[in-house]
């Protein structure tokens, strides 16, 4: 071990530093990592480092005081660092209408938006943000049980949308079968390649409308859709 060479972290190739930092969480990149040395700080402030933001799998931080406020502040800081180059963002639990508006105003190039159980986001807030994201290709919403989506407006605002995943969205708002979502999708989202409607209230009529009007569809996930009965007659 006498001949072992100490590693100078500041002299690592930039490509390796990028690779290391991309494996760290957003809090770690905004905190300890940027304080290692000047070269790491420089990479942490590079907009290329923030083309994808993962505000998920942050269980170890949830016990912290004012977790939700701190997490939203971190997300805003990461959006700022992207300098308009943000392409993908995944937010779990901490999303609010104000955060979504902040994101939409500064990330017009966004292609993928994934939101999971963000109780601070309303249907009005979501629509207002999505209408500004004209390049959006992937929209995924999970566990917004009472959200009433205006899918027709979303479809018209996002002509490039290729993937739509709605996991238990609005399923408690509607108490009976409804093809409103399916018909809105069929009417305004002909470019879809992947569609997931878990727990939706659509019927055979809605399924047929989607299949007939979305010719590029490669996958259709209809788990827990209890009003569908496609058995041959």
Provide a descriptive summary of the structure in words.
The protein is an alpha/beta fold and 233 residues long. It has two domains: 37 residues; 172 residues, Leucine-rich repeat, LRR (right-handed beta-alpha superhelix), CATH 3.80.10. It has nine helices and seven strands; from the N terminus they run H-H-H-E-H-E-H-E-H-E-H-E-H-E-H-E. A seven-stranded parallel beta sheet has the order 1-2-3-4-5-6-7, with helices on one face. The longest helix has 16 residues. The chain is elongated and about 70 Å long. InterPro entries: F-box-like_dom_sf, F-box_dom, LRR_dom_sf.
Outline of the structure:
With 233 residues, the chain is an alpha/beta fold.
Keywords:
single chain; 233 residues; alpha/beta; Leucine-rich repeat, LRR (right-handed beta-alpha superhelix); 2 domains; seven-stranded parallel β-sheet; elongated
The count of helical stretches stands at 9
H and E order: HHHEHEHEHEHEHEHE
User: What CATH architecture of the largest domain would you give?
Assistant: Alpha-Beta Horseshoe
**Count of spatially separate domains:** 2
On the 0 to 100 scale, the average pLDDT is 89
Radius of gyration: 21 Å
Work out the number of β strands: 7
The biggest beta sheet reads:
7 strands, parallel
Low-confidence stretches: none
Shape: elongated
Could you say what the CATH topology of the largest domain is called? Leucine-rich repeat, LRR (right-handed beta-alpha superhelix)
CATH superfamily annotation of the largest domain: Ribonuclease Inhibitor
Query: What is the CATH class name of the largest domain?
Result: Alpha Beta
Helix-strand makeup class? alpha/beta
Give the strand line-up of the largest sheet: 1-2-3-4-5-6-7
GO molecular function: SCF ubiquitin ligase complex binding
Domain F-box: 6-53
Pfam family, one: F-box-like
Protein name: F-box domain-containing protein
